[in-house]
Every structure is written in structure tokens, then in C-alpha cells.
Amino acid sequence: MLSDTHISCWARTAFSFYMNTTANVATLAWRASRSGIIGYNDSGTAVWSMTSSGPSPSSDRRLKKDIKPFNSNVLENLNKVNLVNFKYNFFDKDIEHHKKNQSKAKSLEHNHDHKEEEREIKRLEKEANTVRLGVIAQDVQKIFPDIVIENEDGNLAVTENKFIYYLIKGMQEQQAQIKELQDKVRKLEQR
Question: By the 8 A CB rule, do 139 and 77 touch?
Fold first, then answer.
């Protein structure tokens, strides 16, 4: 829950925002660059970038310390993550809300408002019926608790950019298993 927010803008190439939450304080100045929008912390270090693919924390070695290899049996845990097909249920409330507005507009003979609500209902119904692919945050939280966050409404979300690192490690582990099996096959073929 935000307790204090300040946004300031200057020129055409930069803006900054200050955010004070109950959990932490973040001050970032953002500047436009050729590669996207870059976020700088108070000391002037570029710590975030915003490109067409979304926000990304900096991964530059020069900004890190206490670097150690990540050794874990990730592949076994990745096999526990269930991919599911689903539809979002939160569109149902929005649809109901717009149907009430549509009904009011119709009774007041506001034809333009009635048609706008009708278009919005159709759009929301399409979204509500879209089958999506994903995971259930509560299930992932049991396996990889560090990549699940709770938003201000209490709903859980999987931070997909962190999940990618587990996928990379799992792929590396799988490749090591494949190489081990290939070596065993070669030895058997040589007999």
C-alpha cells in the first residue's frame, strides 16, 4: 500500500519518482537513452532499465559483490511445477458492473453510453473466455518461495523474471545429465 508518492518531470528526456511504502523506500531517476529508459539510484548508478520487453534489474558484474555459484537441485523442483490452462475470474465482476451501467443507460435513454457499455462488455467477455497458460502462485510458493510476491490486495504473483534463472539452472542440470548418458552410451558402444 503506497503511503506517499511523488512524481516529478523535467525536460522531454527524463522523469523521476519517489515512492515511500510501508515495506521500503525507493528513489529512482529515470532518463531516456538509445536502449530504453534507464533507472538510476541515489548514487547515480544505473540499476534498472525499461525496454520494450519490460523492466529489468541490472545484471552487470561491476554492481555485484559476494558472487557465488548457485548450486541446487533445481531440475527436480522444476518438475514439481504444474503448468495449467485457466481463465481469469476477476473479469466476471467487471462484466457485471458494466451490465448494470448498460441497464441504467438504457433506462435513461442514453444511447451513446449504452453502446459504449455494450462494447466494453463484449471486450471483457472475450478476455474472460480467453484460455491462458501459467502456474498457480500458491503451488510455486511451496517450491520456490523467493519468486512469489504478495501484492497490496493480498493476491500472489510469480515474478517471472526471477523464475527464468531457475529455468536456466534446470536446463544446465538437464544438459549435464544428457552428457553423462551420452558418455555412458559411448563407453557401451566401444565394448
Answer: no
Sign of the CA dihedral 25, 29, 32, 34?
negative
Set of cell numbers at residue 142: 511451496
Task: Give the H or E element holding residue 114.
Answer: helix 111-128
> Which DSSP letter does residue 80 get?
T
95: its cell numbers: 462484466
Tell me the pLDDT tens digit for each residue of 52-95: 555 556 677 877 788 888 878 899 999 999 999 999 888 788 88
Q: pLDDT (tens digit, 9 = 90+) per residue, 92-113?
A: 888 888 787 777 766 666 666 6
Look up residue 70 and give its amino acid.
F
Residue 89 DSSP class? S
SS3 of residue 157 by DSSP: strand
| 3-class SS of residue 28 | strand
**Distance, CA of 67 to CA of 176 (rounded, Å):** 22
Whole-number Cα distances in Å, 105 to 50, 89, 92: 41, 25, 20
